[in-house]
Design brief:
This protein has helices at 22-27, 36-50, 54-57, 61-64; strands spanning 2-5, 12-15. The chain is globular. The longest helix has 15 residues, at 36-50. 45% of the residues lie in helices and 12% in strands.
Amino acid sequence: MIKTKCFFCKKNYTIDYSDAQYQKIKKNPKAHYVCKKCNESMQREAQSTTGLDPDVIDKYGKFLR
């Protein structure tokens, strides 16, 4: 388990191997972590600003999520 802080909301988190960003933080402790709530918020904002849906851009990406 790794203790880290969200780059945007500044809340502290303890992540484990089940978190998608675990390996990134483990390899580079100075890497920025973005919590799921902030990540989803940024995605919604980008979609509303651009009007693009990620599934339209990369039809295979939805299978990797």
